[in-house]
Design goal:
This protein is α+β, with helices and mostly antiparallel strands and 393 residues long. The protein is built from 13 helices and eleven strands.
Amino acid sequence: MSANEALSSLKDGADRALRNADPRAARELFQRAIDLAPARVDLWMGLAASQRGLGDLAGALAAAESALVHDPRFFPAMLMKGTLLEALGENRQAAVVYGLAAKLAPPSAALAEPTRRALAHAVEVHDRYTAELAANLRAAAGLDGLGAAAARRADVFVEAVAGRRRIYQQEPVQFHFPGMAAVEFYEREAFPWLEALEACTGAIRQELLAVWSEDSPGLTPYVAYAPGAPLDQWAELNNSLKWSAYHFLADGERVEAHCAACPRTMDAIALIDQPQVPGRSPAAMFSILRPRTRIPPHTGIANTRLVLHLPLVVPEGCGFRVGGETRAWREGEAWVFDDTIEHEAWNNGDQPRAVLICDVWSPTLSSEEREMIVRVTAALDRFNGGVVQGGDL
């Protein structure tokens, strides 16, 4: 009998012994099989199951860990390790391991029902652990003794340390300026003109309602890629009025008819510290999101400028996420965010949502840096014979 035949015979016999509720015989056969093929993780898992069947939880744990030595990302072994640690009363260690198992898990549909239930339990235990850990760290942080902005940053720090918040980085599609902080939502104090802009909300909304109808010729699809462009996540919204825009400033140029129709809106936009980049910026528009429409996760083109939202019409069921923070729009309450951090929006309601959107210079750039960025961008476009679209999907 060849070595492969002997190994197959031992494995078949061990599996049969497990099915026949004879873990002692199964353990002996798995150990003999492991002597022939010590890197086979399925044999180590069989040994772990045998040891568990004999009530030797420590031995089962050692076998599961041996499987992970040979394949550190082997989901069944990681899940079993967590289960055994929990059975041994090592609850916090089990919770940490359960978190690793959840990251390694294949799609739920690919799992047998018992494994699906075990994974659901693992996730529940891990969530309880991270919530308890975050509460403990929050108390140690002393958030009440910090200012509001510092407390918000500290809370994000605590949530990240506890493993409850993913860290998002800037991912500009084209223009990445080094050393820029990855801030999801900026503090209001960075924009001294913000309150004056918000005070104009009523006038801006009146002008919006005067020019806005579903068949308004002024509305154009927000996403409008040319034929042949790779659409990826934009396929549903490309050239669709589900997400539309009423432009005042587009690619650095005024849309004169729209500006004339909304003079008080233009007065308000003039308060904003906008980039002035020929052929590209400033940009300002009403953004209309129709009911039951979702804008998929995406990132913007340049981390040298930020994006302002002034909510004008916000029905129930709308939301907005930037990185790890989700907010609800409130009419008349503006915010500024970094759109080079992954973000998405949705309108799950029955009425359309309308927001004034404008670009804003990053307040961390000096005037000299702003001028340099404009020169470099203009030189790029001169070299290419104009603005070249591409690579931004």
